[in-house]
Amino acid sequence: MSSNTPRRPSRTTTPRPRKIAGREETPAEQEPAPKAPAAPTRAKAPAASKPPSSGTPPTPPKRPVAQPPADDGDGSDRAAGRTSTLLAVLGLVVVVLIAQCGWFVWNSLRDVEVATVATEVTGQGEEGEDSIAVPEDRPVVLNQLAVQEGVDAAASAAQIMFARNWKSYDDGVEDALSLMTDSFAEEYQKTTDDVKQEFVAEKTEVQVRVVAQSVVRANDTELEALVFLNQYVFRGQGEDAKSTYTPYRALLTMVHTDDGWLVDGIDTK
User: How far apart are CA 80 and CA 60, in angstroms?
Assistant: First the structure.
């Protein structure tokens, strides 16, 4: 007796179409490709709720208006500073111009005074016995550079010749003699020897300052220079000291030698 054995259900298969030689499979006969799993969909964000429309468009915000910077006074201070600087520069220019004009006027007046005094000293323009030989209509025939050298030499010599100190009397005389011609040096030394004793006994000191100088006549070898001087004389020492001040002028005759311009004569007024 056979037992009732349950039957296994038969696998139902789908019959595959037969492949016929020499025939390609149609797309319908090919096995369908497995489908890719669908990508999960993202949940949509809830849309922002719109405010209920009241029928009137909203008022746009006001644009900020740029305000001008507050005036802290710097601008006015800078303008005032520039004005002050400009006024100072203009004032300085005016002062310089006035000083220059004054100098020209003073120089012109000095030249007139020198010419007038020179005429008085030399005898109203007439040539004396010892005057330098020059044409009447041209008292200076030497070039300007040589004239300036001769006049400067005369001014320096006058300051040394007329200044003296009782402590160094002999040295001062020797310095003066070195600036003279031999003939005039002999005359000068005689004068200094005569006054030496009294000069030293009174402890005298003479200081000389040249104020101005100018040429009177000049030729190739000689010239006359007019020198204005201020003389300060001090006598004694301590409480008994005395001082005097005397302005005067001297006409120096200068001779050009191999050693430069030397003094050959002096006439004081």
Answer: 47
